[in-house]
Design goal:
This protein is α+β, with helices and mostly antiparallel strands and 95 residues long. It has 4 helices and 5 strands. The chain has one domain. The radius of gyration is 14 Å and the shape is globular.
């Protein structure tokens, strides 16, 4: 029997030992690339392998003004909070 080529979001969360909301955040930020087939969001097996090898020290940014800044779900920002600047700061700190 062959290995699966595409995984659902839930299966991806199980493979990476992450929560579904964290997988959604990774997809929203473009860290985890997906394939869309109709309404289904599928993650290629090589993306799961690539993401599992990547060191992600700070998935959730630090609080700003006493509030946690997450801001992404299914790729759309929930509120306007300069997420691009925060993402760039996270990428810079991970290097």
């Amino acid at each position: 029997m062959s290995e699966r080529l595409l995984y659902s979001r839930q299966q991806t969360a199980e493979q990476l030992s992450l929560s579904l909301s964290t997988v959604d955040m990774l997809i929203g930020r473009g860290i985890l690339r997906v394939r869309r087939m109709g309404k289904r969001v599928l993650v290629p097996a090589e993306e799961i392998a690539r993401c599992s090898r990547r060191e992600m020290a700070a998935l959730w940014p630090a609080k700003q003004n006493g509030k946690t800044v997450r801001g992404y779900r299914y790729g759309a920002p929930r509120r306007a909070v300069r997420m691009q600047e925060i993402d760039l700061a996270i990428e810079a700190s991970a290097r």
